[in-house]
Every structure is written in structure tokens, then in C-alpha cells.
Amino acid sequence: MTGRATERRDITAEVIATLAGMVQRDPAELSPETRFFDDLYFDSTNVLELLMQLETDIGVEFDPEILEPSDFEKVGSLVDYVRRALRDA
User: Fold this and answer.
1) CA pseudo-torsion sign 50, 55, 59, 60
2) What span, in angstroms and rounded, lies between the C-alpha atoms of 88 and 83?
3) Pair 50, 19: CB distance under 8 Å
4) What secondary structure, in 3-state letters, does the chain show?
5) Tens digit of each residue's pLDDT (9 = 90 or more) over 4-38
6) Cβ count near 2 (within 10 Å)
7) First-to-final CA distance of the chain
8) What pLDDT score does 88 carry?
9) How many whole angstroms separate alpha carbon 21 and alpha carbon 5?
10) Quick check: pTM over 0.90?
């Protein structure tokens, strides 16, 4: 995917849609400020499930060597990681 195509995609909406399906909530209830651990009560298993689902839904590959705990602080921080991963792909 080219950088320009990545810019046109609404990555935030795509991540939120995947997350909403996973946690069975309305996407309107989630935002870039939603915290995975404090607001959604995620654990490491939930994070892995989300990453696998995002790989399928969005077509991004997650590199465990690059992922940092801060990438999972909020939905917005994960969106930033996804944007970088898609841009660098």
C-alpha cells in the first residue's frame, strides 16, 4: 500500500471498528483516548487477540521487536503504531 493510500484510509475508524467488534460495544463509545487496560480491562491475552484481528482486518503486521508497552496505552497510541507500520510496509 502506498503512503498516499494509507493517508486516505481512516485508520482510527478501522481500529475502533475492530476493537468494538471484539469488546461488543458500539464504536461510538470508543475514541482515541480510550485506554485499553483502565477503560476496557484488557490483559495480555486480549492484546494478542486484538493484534491478530487487526492483522486480518487491516492488513498490518505487528513486529514484536518494535512494539512498546506505550503503544497500548490508548487506542490513539495503537493507531499511531498502525499508521507507522502501514507507511513503512
Assistant:
1) positive
2) 9
3) yes
4) CCHHHHHHCCHHHHHHHHHHHHHCCCHHHCCCCCECCCCCCCCHHHHHHHHHHHHHHHCCCCCCCCCCHHHHCEHHHHHHHHHHHHHHC
5) 454 567 999 999 999 999 999 999 999 999 999 99
6) 10
7) 7
8) 81
9) 24
10) no
Count of alpha carbons within 13 angstroms of residue 50, beta-carbon side? 26
The CA distance from 85 to 88, in Å, is 5
Q: How many CA atoms lie within 13 A of 60 on its CB side?
A: 26
Q: Determine phi and psi for 24, rounding to 5 degrees.
A: 55, 55
* Residues counted in the chain: 89
Contacts of 12 by beta carbon, 8 Å cutoff, 6+ apart:
32, 75, 76, 79
